[in-house]
Amino acid sequence: MSMKPVPIPTPETQTFWDKAREHELWLPKCVDSGQVFFPPRAFSPFTGGAVAWEKASGKAKLASFVIVHRPSPGYEAEAPYVIALAELAEGPRMMTNLPGAPVDPAALTIGAPLIVSFEARGDIVIPQFRLEDEA
Amino acid sequence: MSVVIVGATESARLGVVPDQSAMSLACESAIAALRQAGLTITDVDGVAGTMSPIEIAFALGAKPRWLDGTMVGGCSYMLHVRHAVAAIEAGQADVVVIAHGESGRSRVGAPSYTKNPSDLTGQFEMPYGILGSYTRFTLPVMAYLHKYGLGEADLAEVPVAQSRWANRNPRALRPELLSVDDVLASPLIAWPFHRFECCPVTDGGGALVLTSQERAADMNLRYRPITVIGSGESCEGPGPVFMEDLTSFRAFRDASAAAMRTSGVSHAEVDHLMIYDAFAHVPIYGLEDMGFVGRGEAVDFIRSGATSPGGSLPMNTTGGGLLYTHTGMYGMFALLEAVRQLQGCAAAQLDQVRTSLVLGAGGMFSAAGAVMLRAD
Q1: In this complex, do A72 and B139 lie within 8 Å of one another by their Cβ atoms?
Q2: How much is the ipTM here?
Q3: A130 in a domain, yes or no?
Q4: pTM value?
């Protein structure tokens, strides 16, 4: 069975992954406009200017999901499993698996509150959002 | 100067073709498309494709002075048409061949799937168990269904309507008439998507030949020339997680608006529509993003029969990518069906059809291309 995929950071994403290792969710921010964005980029997608980082609240809402019945490599033991989109309180969206959530469409409500958690994988830690009620 | 399509063919066989490579399928189609216009390889001075245009030109024995290797996924061929029109108008090429070949099912001479753990998808999507397009292209749909109070059975209306076309098409891979119950009873792939709401993966090829209207007037054409009267292209993000709005695809809106504007055609004047349908929700987004219906109205429109045989806006008249064929980059087949309808040689031929609009998606809600075609 293959391993679940492990991302390899690039210079523009290194801060995101360093903070995740400390179990914190940080977002890049346009220095000129103050707007946060995701995914991290080397330059602000709003002004082309500099990028700073700030800690996110870790709060999100369930924006969409599918329940995968034909697993990707590394996920064979978990099928069916959820792939979801979390809409952060700060605005941007991130992908997640909703660990611990019931794998049942009737139990997954769009708009349900989520809270960030962290999953160690290989030499990296990835953010995973959970249903707030289950956390 | 008008630019016209003078050749449009598919490979003789579609579906499972284990004894032909992707390049062989592309070349077979290109040679047949040239023959429709009474042309040979020596007439070709422009080559485009998603495979390397160098390799396509070399395989064909062409010596092009214009190349386009635009590769933005399944809508790349809409962009090739658009770029070829500009090149011919600018005098950079006289006869352009756009060739597609893909051994999506049999993987004969096809590249291996590679993934980059450092690109945006590798870092922010792959770690969550996405790989096949059914885990990824599908992701926004629950946001859409929730917003408009729709559910699993509503999504099934798309393959149900398209099965009425596939059922009239002897080349369709999935020709059976489908009910909503049939769709919901087919195996779950990624809830709420069942087998008939996900494209198959097939082998096949297709090609288009474009030239100027003036040059076409001197050719011995098998079919009437079809004029490219407008087009558009755009892109949004590298994956659905990065869409601005999960219920609408900006690149669909921008590319189709450009095709409408440059052609001067109104919605009411469009007789026939092809919308790239790798998955059942894509035509729903397309109908709304192009403005043929209001927000949240596409399912009711499809359910009403408007896009089915006898309806006011026939759509995906081969059965579409879901039921006809889907080699991986289906856009060529959507274009070819639009051309056939306008030439009058489609399997499920419409009675009155003069103007056709083709909308392609590339990647997973990543890129889009739109082409407006007219039989003059």
Answers
A1: no
A2: 0.96
A3: yes
A4: 0.97
